[in-house]
Amino acid sequence: MITRQQKEIVQAVKDAVNGLGRNKITVRSGRGIGKDAIIAMIIQWFILCFMPCKVPCTAPTENHLNVTLWNEIKLRNSRMPKYIRELYEITSDYVRIAQNKDTQFAVAKVGKKENAEGMAGLHSEFVLAVVDEAS
User: Fold this and answer.
1) How many domains does the chain have?
2) For each successive 10 residues of the chain (135 residues), what is the average pLDDT?
3) Cβ-count burial of 115 within 10 angstroms (0-12 exposed, 13-18 middle, 19+ buried)?
4) What's the pTM value of the predicted model, to 2 decimals?
């Protein structure tokens, strides 16, 4: 079951995808509302349903990306039915659709001031940029 706040996030993404809302969505603080859980679900939905697509994901620290967001993605994946779970390939820095590794994926890269171009070059018909814990 998702929370009221998670429903609002999903609705905002749905509106953006359908051209009915803003294409830049921010979620301001809030403890325990399940931001990383819903972000993980949205990432997995996006890379499964949009082709070709790329989802660059960044956070201030590698620890946050790996311990928080990527672990949440793995947890959500483990709860999926086997036939859906097997569509995904999850590594330490990628979540991919196994059949389309080069065209349907999310990638984790730490956002560093000295390497602002770290996410450059990720072009696709569909792009969902995720900035987790923006500082």
Assistant:
1) 1
2) 91 94 84 89 97 93 89 96 97 95 94 62 87 74
3) exposed
4) 0.90
